[in-house]
């Protein structure tokens, strides 16, 4: 037998309707299928959503100017966030803070360290992007928050207030590179997931937050102004996105282990320590069976599975068929007990 360890996150909870709880031995959604037998809802579960957060404080090199190419600007940023389209910029207290052709990044920064910025016009556009650890789930709800900064004083670009900021999604992370500087809505590679009209004051930061119902299975996200008719410069900090993400399934050759016998008791086990556990018989959760091993009660044969999970993901073992032969003699028993 072979177990498949699926690094995937909890299936989303549909709003305003019952959803199968895959850990309780009850047909919660009333479809006649309980727990793992409800394959659509219970491929795998994990206890909580994933929070993606970036404060842009960590870097591999201190930026000394606006981005001109590899080795400076946003290419110094650490953490997986990158420019998309044109050459978005990176500002840090260690070095470059703006000025000259660009306005100065408004201070104090929301979180001490660094912020990012983008220039957008009718013909040239910059965005900040990130390839997600797993695809977003269509129709699920995601929460977001970030700071938007405004300033003027640049010789070639300044902020405008208010401005409409978009959160965009792509199904293909290969489009997340420098090159296509068209407005995202016109590229065909990106969908506008959410747009937010943001107000504020020059030289200050505005905090925004909200939620949206996701519309596609996006592998990457990016943010920046929606299509502009005039040149505008905008600053960003402390971006967060929280929700459920499907992670690539990883196959692991592993079996449920069996020890003991029908005299002393049969013990099933997972040989993957350090997780939370839930055992199942014929796909239905066994109440209280939440250890790495499970002591099988006398006569309780059938197909067993175990779900293992932690805060990062989870996996479900393939069914392990247990047959119990009770026609054995306990040689340690008193002879009067078997005559």
Give short descriptive properties of this protein:
339 residues, 6-stranded antiparallel β-sheet, 22 strands, 0% helix, elongated, disordered N terminus
Mean pLDDT: 84
Number of helices: 0
Radius of gyration: 27 Å
Topology, number of strands: 22
Helix content percent band: under 10%
How would a crystallographer describe the biggest sheet?
A: 6 strands, antiparallel
Question: Can you give a write-up of this model?
Answer:
It is a single chain. The chain is mostly beta strands and 339 residues long. The strands form 5 sheets. Strands 1, 17, 18, 20, 21 and 22 form a 6-stranded antiparallel beta sheet that branches. Strands 2, 4, 5, 8, 11 and 13 form a 6-stranded antiparallel beta sheet that branches. Strand 15 and strand 16 form a beta hairpin. The N terminus and C terminus are likely disordered.
Quick structural gist:
This protein is an all-beta fold and 339 residues long. It has strands spanning 4-8, 50-54, 82-85, 89-92, 114-120, 126-131, 135-136, 141-149, 163-170, 191-198, 205-213, 220-225, 232-243, 245-246, 257-261, 265-269, 276-281, 284-285, 293-296, 302-309, 314-316, 320-322. It has no helices and 22 strands.
């Amino acid at each position: 037998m072979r177990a498949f360890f699926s690094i995937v996150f909890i299936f989303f909870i549909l709003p305003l309707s019952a959803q199968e709880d895959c850990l309780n031995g009850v047909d919660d959604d009333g479809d006649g299928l309980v727990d793992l037998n409800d394959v659509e809802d219970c491929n795998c579960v994990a206890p909580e959503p994933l929070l993606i957060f970036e404060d842009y404080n960590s870097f591999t090199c201190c930026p000394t100017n606006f981005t001109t190419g590899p080795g400076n600007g946003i290419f110094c940023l650490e953490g997986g966030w990158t420019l998309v389209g044109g050459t978005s910029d990176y500002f840090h207290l260690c070095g470059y803070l703006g000025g000259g052709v660009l306005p100065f990044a408004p201070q104090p920064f929301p979180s001490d360290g660094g912020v990012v910025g983008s220039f957008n016009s009718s013909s040239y556009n910059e965005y900040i992007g990130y390839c997600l650890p797993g695809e977003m789930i269509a129709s699920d709800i995601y929460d977001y928050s970030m700071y938007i900064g405004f300033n003027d004083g640049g010789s070639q670009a300044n902020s405008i207030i208010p401005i409409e900021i978009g959160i965009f999604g792509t199904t293909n992370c290969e489009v997340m590179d420098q090159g296509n500087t068209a407005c995202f809505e016109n590229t065909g590679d990106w969908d506008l997931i959410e747009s937010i009209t943001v107000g504020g004051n020059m030289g200050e930061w505005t905090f925004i937050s909200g939620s949206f119902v996701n519309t596609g299975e996006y592998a990457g996200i990016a943010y920046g102004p929606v299509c502009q008719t005039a040149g505008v410069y905008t600053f960003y900090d402390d971006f967060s996105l929280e929700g459920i993400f499907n992670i690539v399934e990883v196959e692991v050759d592993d079996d449920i282990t069996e020890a003991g016998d029908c005299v002393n008791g049969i013990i099933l086990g997972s040989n993957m320590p350090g997780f939370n556990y839930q055992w199942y018989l014929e796909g239905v959760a066994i109440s209280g069976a939440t250890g790495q091993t499970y002591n099988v009660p006398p006569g309780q044969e059938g197909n067993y599975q175990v779900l293992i999970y932690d805060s990062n993901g989870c996996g479900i073992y393939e069914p392990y068929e247990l047959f119990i032969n009770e026609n054995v003699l306990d040689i340690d028993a008193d002879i009067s007990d078997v005559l």
